[in-house]
Amino acid sequence: MDLIGNILSVRGATPKIADDAFISSTAVIIGDVEIGSGSNVWYHCVLRGDIHEIRVGKNANIQDGTVVHVARNRFGTYIGDEVTIGHMVLIHACTLQDGSMVGMHATVMDGAVVEEGALVAAGALVTPGKRVKSGETWGGSPARFIRKVSNKDIAMINRIPSSYLELGREYRDAGLDLRQTYPLDGPMEDAAE
C-alpha cells in the first residue's frame, strides 16, 4: 500500500481525482475511487474503494464526516453529477443519481438507488435494495415515502451544488487542498516525513 498524504493506493488501484476538485486536508480516499470535475470532499470524509469501485460525478459535494464504502463482489458506489450528501452521512454500496440529495446523518444501504432529483431526509435509513423515485422525499427509519419533493426542496437541491462548487474553489485557491500539501507526483519519501 502506498501513502500519499491521505490518498492511498491499495490492491493496485490509485484514486483518480480531477484537478479542479477540492479534497480537504483530513479526507481519506482509498483505492478504486474516481472523483469528477468540480466535486468536493470535505473534512473527515472517508471514501474507501478497497473491495469495489466508487465513482463520483461532476460538481458533487460530500460534506464533513461522511463515509462512502462498497460491498465485496456485489455493489460499487455511484454518486452522480451535482449530488449533495450532507454532513455525517453513511453511503454504502448504492447509487445516487444526478441531482439527488441525502440529508445530514442519513444512511443509504446496499443496492439502494436514489433517483434523479429525489431527496432522502436528514436521519433517514434507506434499507438495502430500496428505490427512492425521482421527485419523492423519503424519511424515517426505515425510510419510506413521505411526500413529493416541493418547489422549496427543488430550489435547495439546485442551489447547494453550485454553492459548494464555489466554496471548494475558495478553499483550493487558499492552498487548503490535500494535494497541495502532498502532491501526487512528488517523492513518496517527502510525503512520509
Quantity of strands, as a count? 21
Structural class: alpha/beta
Output mean pLDDT: 92
Indicate the CATH class.
Mainly Beta
What name goes with the CATH superfamily? Answer: Hexapeptide repeat proteins
Low-pLDDT residue spans: 185-193
Strand content: 25-35%
Number of helices: 3
**Percent range for helical residues?**
10-25%
What is the alpha-carbon Rg in Å? 16 Å
The number of distinct structural domains comes to 1
CATH topology, which one? Answer: UDP N-Acetylglucosamine Acyltransferase, domain 1
Tell me the overall shape.
globular
CATH architecture group name: 3 Solenoid
Question: What does this protein look like?
Answer:
This protein has one domain: Hexapeptide repeat proteins (UDP N-Acetylglucosamine Acyltransferase, domain 1, 3 Solenoid). The protein is built from 3 helices and 21 strands. The chain has helices spanning 151-173, 178-181, 188-192; strands spanning 2-4, 7-9, 16-17, 22-23, 28-35, 40-41, 46-56, 61-62, 67-69, 77-79, 84-85, 90-92, 95-96, 101-102, 107-108, 113-114, 119-120, 125-126, 131-132, 136-139, 144-148. Strands 1, 2, 3, 5, 7, 9, 10, 12, 13, 15, 16, 18 and 19 form a 13-stranded mixed β-sheet that branches. The protein has an 8-stranded mixed β-sheet with strand order 4-6-8-11-14-17-20-21. Residues 185-193 have low confidence and may be disordered.
Offer a concise description of the structure.
The longest helix has 23 residues, at 151-173.
What topology emerges from the helices and strands here?
Elements: E1 2-4, E2 7-9, E3 16-17, E4 22-23, E5 28-35, E6 40-41, E7 46-56, E8 61-62, E9 67-69, E10 77-79, E11 84-85, E12 90-92, E13 95-96, E14 101-102, E15 107-108, E16 113-114, E17 119-120, E18 125-126, E19 131-132, E20 136-139, E21 144-148, H1 151-173, H2 178-181, H3 188-192
Parallel strand pairs: 2-5, 3-5, 4-6, 5-7, 6-8, 7-9, 7-10, 8-11, 9-12, 10-13, 11-14, 12-15, 13-16, 14-17, 15-18, 16-19, 17-20
Antiparallel strand pairs: 1-2, 20-21
